[in-house]
Amino acid sequence: MSRDRIKKATLPPAQENIEKLEKIVQGGNYYGAQQMYKSISARYLSAERYSEALDILQAGACIQLEHGQVICAAELAVLLVETLVKGKFSYNEETLDRVSRIYSKFPRISAPQHLDLAADDAMQQFSEAIGAAKTRVEGCSSFLKASIKWSIEFGAHRRGSPELHDMLAEYIYSESPEVDMSKISFHFVRGKSPKKFASILVNFMGKCYRGEDELAIARATLMYLAMGNLRDANYLMDELKKQLQTGELKFPQSDLIQFINYILLTLERDALPLFNMLRQNYKSSIEQEPIFNELLDEIAEKFYGVQRKNPLQGMLGDFFKMMADDGK
Question: Strands, E, within 149-285: which ranges?
Answer without folding.
Answer: none
